[in-house]
Amino acid sequence: xxxxxxxxxxxxxxxxxxxxxxxxxxxxxxxxxxxxxxxxxxxxxxxxxxxxxxxxxxxxxxxxxxxxxxxxxxxxxxxxxxxxxxxxxxxxxxxxxxxxxxxxxxxxxxxxxxxxxxxxxxxxxxxxxxxxxxxxxxxxxxxxxxxxxxxxxxxxxxxxxxxxxxxxxxxxxxxxxxxxxxxxxxxxxxxxxxxxxxxxxxxxxxxxxxxxxxxxxxxxxxxxxxxxxxxxxxxxxxxxxxxxxxxxxxxxxxxxxxxxxxxxxxxxxxxxxxxxxxxxxxxxxxxxxxxxxxxxxxxxxxxxxxxxxxxxxxxxxxxxxxxxxxxxxxxxxxxxxxx
Length: 339
Hints:
- By secondary structure, this protein is mainly alpha-helical.
- 57% of the residues lie in helices and 4% in strands.
- It has two domains: 5-111, DNA polymerase, domain 1 (Orthogonal Bundle), CATH 1.10.150; 128-302, Orthogonal Bundle (hpI Integrase, Chain A).
C-alpha cells in the first residue's frame, strides 16, 4: 500500500521531530498523539476517510474546524480540551508547512483558527487544617498507609505537580540537612525544592522500610504500586480521593472534587499568606514567568480582606452638619441656579 503524505509527515513528526529536535517530554508527545488519534476517528466517522487514506490535501482549515465542533458537541469536551487539541494541530501545521510548502496557504488558515475564551476558574485550595485532616486519614499501621502518608506529605510540602511526584526516583531525595527533593518539571527542567524535617523523616522511614537503600536502587521509583512499578497520575488521584472521602465525614466543608493539583495550589497559597516573596514562590513551583505565580495573589481573598481592613480610615459618626452652614448652602444654590 502506498504511504500518504499525511501519514509520512505525521509519523516523522511524532517519532522523530517532537522527541528529538523539539525535545518535548513523553507526556506532551502522548497528548499530541491522542489528538491525532481523535482526528483519524473523526475522519473515518464523518468523512468516510480511513486513516491510511487521509492526505494533507484533506487536512484543511474547514476539516479542522469541523473536528473542533465535533469534539465539543458530539464528545462533550470542554473548551479547555478543545483549545489543547487545537494547539497540537497548529503545532503540526507549522511543521508540515516546512516539509510540504505546497500546502502552506491552507496551513496558514489553520494557524488562523482562534482559541475559544473560557471563564477563569476559581483557584481551588485548602486551608492548612483541611490539608492536615486529609493526610491524617492515612493508616500508619500498614505499609500502604505509610506509603500514602509519605506521598501526600511530600506532594503538599514540595508543591510538586502530580507527574513530578510520579517521576521522583529514590536518589532525588536528600534526607540529610538541608532536606530537599529534586523535581523534574515541564521541558525536563529540574529544580531542588526544600522540604520540612518532618517530611524528610517520613521519607527516610519509608525508603528504609521498602528496602530502597540498597546499592543500585537509586534510580528506582520512589512511590510504587502493588506491581512495584511507579505510581501513575491516575493512581495518585485515586489515593488522594480515598483519603479526601474519609476526611469529609468529619470535615463536610471539604470540596467534593479534589485533584492532586489542589495540594500544589494550597502550598502556594500558604507560602503567599506567610509573606514569602513572589519570586521565591515562582522558583519553588517551577514557573517560568512570575505572571503565572501572580494568580495566587489575585485569588487570595483573605489577604485582600486583611489589607483592605488595615488600610481603612475610621469615619466618626459625629460629622459636622454641613447643612447648618448657611453660606455654603447659599453657594450651592447659586451654583446650581446658574445656566
